[in-house]
Design brief:
Mean pLDDT of chain A: 95
Strand order of the largest sheet of chain A: 1-3-4-5-2
Number of helices of chain A: 4
Order of helices and strands of chain A: EHHHHEEEE
CATH class of chain A: Alpha Beta
Shape of chain A: elongated
Helix content of chain A: 10-25%
Low-confidence stretches of chain A: none
Oligomer: homodimer
Number of strands of chain A: 5
Structural class of chain A: alpha+beta
Radius of gyration of chain A: 17 Å
Distance between the termini of chain A: 12 Å
CATH architecture of chain A: Roll
């Protein structure tokens, strides 16, 4: 189902990635396994914290955004991983039943200078909650294959 | 079980966070939910990819490292979240049954200039596999409460 290769990606491209309503059970289950801090897993400790209630692990919020990015973009593209992220920011805590909407923008495309089968795409993802508050943003560099390298 | 407050954290502190063996089932289940790209969930597509086999979602690797950081450090500290990360890097792919070991180093501590109950701690986390290859690193800024703000 690969429709988008490196050559098809343009600086300035913007993709709306849709939205996802955060189920409390899923949010807390994630934190139990990967980020079991009291503010993420312990309702009463979270009530007494500076957040006045349980909030999502930032890694869970990142996972929700990644899921939207894969469904709406990477799954249709010759994407083969990422070199990493810069500037991952959690601006506003995510709470149970929040509706997270994400958007992706292509910042920069460059061919690999050492491998002729691929190129690198720097892109910005930003997510907001139902009130329009920014909850997360990141800048990532992803690897995409060139059409000439298609099997 | 809070033993470590902002005042107890010193630039240059190094903490070994232990290690974790990656179960294939867990690694793939994570990817199915949060990062369902073929290289992370489809054995035969991954065999045919540039990775010659299934690899972990970078977000799963981050989750494994976070779990080690919480268990060995944050769970014993007055940690109340993070402002974000810079320079999250995935250097070497993680594969099933890899043993991931992580280490944390404190880079910088600074008091909040606007809130007298907290301070900010910039810290570096690095993780290696059983062969000594670096698999992940990040630089994060975490929020810690001061002893004077303890309940």
């Amino acid at each position: 189902m690969t429709e988008i290769y490196f050559e098809d990606i343009r600086e300035g491209d913007v993709r709306e990635l849709g939205s996802y309503r955060v189920p409390k059970d899923e949010m807390v289950a994630f934190a139990h396994q990967y980020d079991p801090q009291p503010i993420h897993v312990d309702e009463s400790a979270a009530e007494d914290s500076i957040y006045d209630g349980i909030i999502a692990s930032g890694w869970y919020t990142a996972g929700v955004c990644m899921q939207l990015l894969v469904d709406e973009f990477l799954d249709h593209a010759a994407s083969v991983g990422s070199l990493g992220l810069d500037e991952l920011r959690w601006e506003t805590p995510v709470r149970p039943s929040d509706v997270i909407s994400a958007r992706n923008e292509i910042l920069e495309v460059r061919e690999s200078t050492t491998r002729d089968d691929r190129g690198y795409v720097k892109n910005y993802l930003v997510a907001h909650n139902q009130d329009g508050d920014e909850v997360l943003s990141w800048t990532a560099t992803n690897i995409f294959l060139r059409k000439s390298a298609a099997p």
